[in-house]
Amino acid sequence: MAALQASSLLVSSSSSSSSGCSSKRMITASIQAPKPSRPRLADPSLMITKKLVEELRTRNGYSFAEPLQMDIAQKDRALEPRLSPTPSIETITKLHAILEAVEDRVEMHNNIGEQRDNWNKLLLNSVNMMTLTATTMAAMAAATPAPSLRACSALLFTAATGMSLVMSKIQPSQLAEEQRNASRLFKQLQSEIKSILALQSPSASDVKEMMAKMLALDRAYPLPLLGAMLEKFPAKFEPAAWWPRVSNNCRQSRGWKTVANTERNGWSEDLEVEMRAIVQVLKSKDKQDYLRLGNLALKLNKIMAVSAPLLTGIAAAGFRPSVAQQPQQWQPLLVRWWRSSTDSSMEMYRNCAGFFDLMEETIEATLEEEEYSKRENGELFEMKVAMKLGRSLSQLRDLARKSMASCIEGTEVDEFGSKLF
To answer: What are the mean pLDDT values of the chain's consecutive 10-residue runs (421 residues total)?
Structure first.
């Protein structure tokens, strides 16, 4: 249309001109007229695009900054995690090697624990059936005089006495409980190593610490049965110790520290006082109670371990036809049942007392560290202590207040620190 209007104006103004010139002007007008029209047709779309951009920038009251106008400090904060020191390939390889060894030990302790549990059931059922059969034969010999029944009864009592001596020496029920605890603790170490590899930058100190923990577990729960077996009748009951005994075993948790309050790393004077009060409760209540129960279980275990083969031996040596004159023939069954229960109880008390000993040592070692940057984050540490004791944070603080009040008043706390066991 613009080309036609331009051509009509040219024709009306120059009527005296020749047809060739007008045609030339019309051609030039038709060629030059579309040139300025192209940007005019694109202007509305450009304006719509700009309006859409402005609308997106100011929508919901938020404004979008241009990429080139980003603050330099924001760029530094965004790139800060990438600039953290990356662990060496050698360190990661060593941790993976330790992780493979720990996983292998979990399987070994599981298998050996099942094997020794089968031993315990087999030996206990065999001795009980031998004692029951011998007692039944003695009753039949009393009713019907038969020398063969008396001989078989005496032979079975003698075999039961020998097997009872073996069981009292190796304590198969306690061996099975040890392997179950070892498997559980190695699984904890396995999860700890995986967390280090996933969430932190492992260092050489982490490798040394994980290696020391693995070797400490090997010493606490040995796999061999002969030569390295734990003492089943110690002179004094002591808690189990499955961690390396060092002055400061508190790991530096670089990846767990918070950004805020970096000067004290989440610690305060109130939190330190609270942790000391918790340690006091664990020492005076929980640990002492399990030490008392462990000593009692140890004494009962010694008595039962001697009584079972002794009564069976007396039944075999002093055999009489009359069962009524021999009540001791039935007693070994009850004695062995009680002895198997006291074996597992003593091992449970050892581990519970060791757990509170580990809690006490961990908290004290953390508080003894003077540099807050080397401690674990205070809020995280408090949450871990609360979870291990089966309490919430408010319950943990209430327990600390009760402990501090009891120290001031000279009274005893009316509850235990742990609500789990």
So the answer is: 41 41 41 45 50 52 42 40 63 94 96 93 88 84 80 87 87 90 96 90 91 95 84 88 68 40 80 94 93 91 82 70 46 56 77 94 92 91 95 94 89 88 80
pTM score = 0.70
Q: How far apart are CA 150 and CA 140, in angstroms?
A: 9
C-alpha 141/C-alpha 146 separation (Å) is 6
The candidate with the shortest Cα–Cα distance to 253, out of 98, 96, 366, 176, is 366
Q: Is 171 helix (H, G, I), strand (E, B) or coil?
A: coil
Per-residue pLDDT, 54: 60
Which spans in 200-330 are helix H? 204-220, 269-281, 288-317
Task: Assess contact for 411 and 404: CB atoms under 8 A.
Answer: no
Count CB-CB contacts under 10 A for residue 330. Answer: 15
Q: What distance in Å separates the CA atoms of residue 291 and residue 350, rounded to the nearest whole number?
A: 8
CA gap 153, 123 in Å, rounded:
19
Angle (nearest 5°) at CA 284 between 279 and 290: 105
Q: What is the pLDDT of residue 317?
A: 75
Note the pLDDT of residue 416. 93
Nearest one of 197, 378, 417 to 273, comparing CA atoms: 378
Radius of gyration of the chain (CA): 42
CA-based diameter of the chain, in Å? Answer: 163
Per-residue pLDDT at 62 = 46
- Shortest CA distance to 219 belongs to which of 246, 192, 183, 243? 243
Provide CB contacts within 8 A for 65, sequence distance 6+: none
Distance, in Å, from the CA atom of 351 to the CA atom of 361, rounded to the nearest integer, reads 15
- Amino acid letter, residue 21: C
406-418 as b/e, with b when 16 or more CB fall inside 10 Å? beeeeeebeebbb
